[in-house]
Amino acid sequence: MAGNKSYTIVEYFGGDDGYRCGYCKNEKGNFSHGMWSHTMTVQDYQDLIDRGWRRSGKYVYKPIMNKTCCPQYTIRCHAVKFQPSKSHKKILKKMSKFISKGELPTGQDDGEPMDSVCEEAGPREPSKVSHAEVKCPVVTDIQKEVAECPAITGVQKEVADAVPTGSEMPRNDPVSVPDGRTTATPPKPGMGADPSRPPCRKAKDLRKERRIQKEQMRQHADGVSSIVSPTPSTPTQTNQPKNLEDFINESLPDNSSHCLEVRLVRSNPPSPQFKASFDASYQVYKLYQMAIHKDPPDKPSESQFRRFLCDSPLEAEYSPDGPEVGYGSFHQQYWLDGRIVAVGVIDILPTCVSSVYLYYHPEFASMSLGSYSALREIAFTRHLQKQSPKLSYYYLGFYIHSCPKMRYKGQYRPSDLLCPETYVWVPIERCLPQLENSRYARFNQDPDAGDARALKDVGRALVLYRRAVMPYAAYSRKRKSSSDETEVQQYAGLVGQDCAERILLYRA
């Protein structure tokens, strides 16, 4: 975003052998490409998830879609255009009833299982790279190498450009509970008794509007600018549908039996609030894994929790045109009556909020917290979009049509699925008929379309070799006996041109 250049540095592992699938439980049916990210900019990760990648801790993986048992399609929701469905309203009302009256539904809701943490993929440990080698690459060699490789004229500027990282400012979480004043979509004409007449309005609204108009006319006559008086908001129409924020605010009434508060804390680098609540958050995760995923008591260890849900390659970044909280990795903590009952792990990126994982106290398994947290995160995205207009999407991770229990993500409309071959977004309504016929599908209907962002010259891919940044063409001349060109070509094809020319691929 601006300042001194931050690098993305990765080690690519190639396509793994088959491993256990967390969805259909096939012991050897899940296949993916993987790489370990030592550090990553939010823009690079945005570009990677727009090519089908996803992170679990610092491990970034991409399913081999035409080979894996349960193809996993990246899904995004248009948060600004989202309207809650009947089932979503029912979930929000259930939460409102619980908060206001203290009535906890009985039984367990098993309709929204979370994405499995990618531990089955067996994220490999990174190479034993020294901290200095990763964090302090030098760029002195690149000027000479660029001269020898004229096709790489833009690399020197890319390496010299600045991206600052800021420190986390202690703050409460006003952004996590957006207000309900977003203008709702107007009703369709013809829904009233007489479509040619305007909808009925309350008499008090009409009186208020006339009073404001008279005041503005008086000020204008006196030579006072109308800017002195704030422009009145459009009177609420009695037949306007409630928007998402209206329903959420209903679930937070005053003088209720319970108090629900959502706090946003930065997980990387860990903020003071994150550190103070770490133990309580971990205990909820441990109970969740044992009750919901049937893990033995010794499996949900603190190190596992840190590795998959706290560690992140994304550093904190701030931008003048970005959200106030900045970009990077966060935990959204749901505090009920002073204790943590659920945690949503999210990434805030240049154009989206990306959902990573949710875990909750098993005591509240009947509250449909998977769907409730998604609705809260959509509302949070809409709030951030008011601060940063380009941040308008909510990524729900992967949509897995072959796993019926994972289809609930397709209920957040309007939404798109990512074509696994051309990396263009296609409305989900056009994708579902194809997925009914085949687990793997190419959504782009243009048979001649290809990967528009494919890297045509692997020599342009950047590598980090002996603490020096250089294009692969220069690296291959230094290492004439190197036999890794096939691997680098595969990697460059998977990350695409933009990332290949920015990300530093570590070469031992």
TrEMBL record:
Provide the reaction this enzyme catalyses.
Answer: an N-terminal L-alpha-aminoacyl-[protein] + L-arginyl-tRNA(Arg) = an N-terminal L-arginyl-L-aminoacyl-[protein] + tRNA(Arg) + H(+)
Low complexity: bias regions:
224-241
Q: Which residues form the N-end aminoacyl transferase N-terminal domain?
A: 20-90
Report the Pfam families cross-referenced here.
ATE_C (PF04377), ATE_N (PF04376)
One GO cellular component assignment for this chain's record is: cytoplasm
The leader peptide range reads none
Any one GO MF annotation of this record: arginyl-tRNA--protein transferase activity
**InterPro entries for this protein:** Acyl_CoA_acyltransferase, Arg-tRNA-P_Trfase_1_euk, N-end_Aminoacyl_Trfase, N-end_Aminoacyl_Trfase_C, N-end_Aminoacyl_Trfase_N
Listed EC numbers: 2.3.2.8
The superkingdom of the source organism is Eukaryota
Keyword Acyltransferase, does the record have it? yes
In this chain, the stretch annotated as Disordered covers 164-202, 214-241
Q: What class of enzyme is it?
A: transferase
N-end rule aminoacyl transferase C-terminal domain residues are 281-419
Q: Which UniProt keywords apply?
A: Acyltransferase, Transferase, Ubl conjugation pathway
Recorded family membership: Belongs to the R-transferase family.
Could you tell me what this protein does?
Answer: Involved in the post-translational conjugation of arginine to the N-terminal aspartate or glutamate of a protein. This arginylation is required for degradation of the protein via the ubiquitin pathway.
Q: Which PANTHER family match?
A: ARGININE-TRNA-PROTEIN TRANSFERASE 1, ARGINYL-TRNA--PROTEIN TRANSFERASE 1
User: Could you tell me what this protein is called?
Assistant: Arginyl-tRNA--protein transferase 1
